[in-house]
């Protein structure tokens, strides 16, 4: 299934581009119309060139597109789109495709950029939390608020923050950290609280701040530039399990003596192997994975961040684990926005910020569809009892629930609609005041109703969405019909496969074979990678040794992937190399190949050679060719079976818009 959907996405990939707004019919298959807009959209997604300036390419693609549509039409003609399996799969992906259109993308972009700007600064703060449920009653909210004010008064009168936090804060971590959140960035705390941290100044106590976790009193301690990510090695001398002063002194003395050896020039990695008690890193010279703020004990983190250059060594630093001598290996700042834009947008869309963007859509829809709220909830409220918190409540059948609740776009929703929603969406939960529960559920009912309605309207209102849905529809049918008419037939018809091979045996006598080592790199400067790689190869290092050297000196993402020794047609990477060889683009005796677009480095371990293989070894190649043969016959029959008419004037109009 993963391959199936990934392949469909590949066929339909890339951002939506709309060439024109008209829906002129470009060609028909029997009576089914395919528009110019749909064709141009498909061409633009699957070709990097401008269609207006490439008439020949457009004509070639049109022929391919007609064949694609013929297969889809045949699938529909055979009832593939009526099968429940297809309906379920298509509906699932149709809903997924709709999601980006049901959230305000401009707001998402703005919030993502805001988060990125905030990433540049880390805030150290401490807080005291008074927990309260998000849907608490006004009475309970007032009680929690008054409790928070009393705590604030105690702080203002001079009580110690850390001591008080350990005593009264509802944050379970406060007992250990005294409310200290350490240095944090965006997405670390509720959004309301984050907004305060990035707009207020250090020093004073905040007024109570309400979040979904309750009320918070916050004090900002410090703000600093984000130090980024660090890679270090360490030598750790662990503290003994007993707390004897003598043992602790001995551990410190050992750490000091090792530090002195490092300062005198002895190899850090060898000292780590010999002395470090961190069994997870000592064999690797003490190297730790990359880390950022909040990932290490505070003392370790501060000591690491204070090392100002690669190779710098810290004095022994004590943490709860023991004494550490730290060596800085590398440091990286925060990535450029474009590098993490997709990740930020995903985090924004799926979190608290996403709700803000969804609510903006709801507000827009209310205005567009002339939303009217009749606010007649009292009848429903009177029907609800405590069974709803046990997920056992049923809508009474003998109660008149015909009263209108709200309307939009000539659609009216009644008390019964809402009651049914409550029955279907109830779940076991801690009881809260009925009015609060109904108010919360009513807002959610309005939101879900409007979003569901808008989803049904998207194909009428939004041409890019309609095209995308149609493409997924056709893509799923295409794979279903190809499976039946080509792939399964080729796989199951051994007699036909053998017969095809016998008739075309001369095509399979000679193959090229390559023995390659495959590497991947991360940096953009391939020249540096190539230069260092050649140098290391000349030193007779093996593939793994080369990878380790380049990782530690030039590119942390450089890695040895695998070694392959196979004939053409089996491994895409070998085929890519052989294309260069066959076309003469590979210099004689050249053994290094760089595919910069994929950041792949290939080393030819031996000369490329010709070889002969029996059908057992080239079965995959023969099978692929047999599939193409069956497909060619099938397409030929489809062209005879269905009438295809191209409107040449409409096709020419694509190029008349220059």
Please describe the structure with a list of short key phrases separated by commas or semicolons:
four-stranded antiparallel beta sheet; flat; single chain; Chitinase A, domain 3; five-stranded antiparallel beta sheet; 24 helices; disordered N terminus; 50% helix; 658 residues
Describe the SSE topology:
Layout: H1 2-11, E1 25-29, E2 32-35, H2 36-46, H3 55-77, H4 84-98, H5 105-119, E3 121-131, H6 138-156, H7 161-168, H8 174-177, E4 180-184, H9 191-199, E5 209-211, E6 214-225, E7 229-238, H10 245-263, H11 268-275, H12 298-305, E8 317-319, E9 322-332, H13 337-350, H14 352-368, E10 372-373, H15 378-383, E11 404-408, E12 411-414, H16 415-425, H17 434-461, H18 463-492, H19 494-503, E13 511-520, H20 526-538, H21 543-553, E14 559-567, H22 572-582, E15 592-595, E16 600-604, E17 609-611, H23 619-641, E18 644-646, H24 648-653
Helix pairs in contact: 1-18, 3-18, 4-18, 5-13, 5-14, 13-14, 14-17, 17-18, 18-23
Question: What this model shows, in words?
Answer:
With 658 residues, the protein is of the alpha+beta class. Among the domains are: 105 residues, Chitinase A, domain 3 (Roll), CATH 3.10.50; 104 residues, Chitinase A, domain 3; 91 residues, no CATH class; 102 residues. It is 50% helix and 17% strand. The chain contains 24 helices and 18 strands. The strands form 5 sheets. Strands 13, 14, 15, 16 and 17 form a 5-stranded antiparallel beta sheet that branches. A 4-stranded antiparallel beta sheet has the order 4-3-6-5, with helices on both faces. It has a 3-stranded antiparallel beta sheet with strand order 2-1-18. Strand 15 and strand 16 form a beta hairpin. Helix 1 crosses helix 18 and helix 4 packs antiparallel against helix 18.
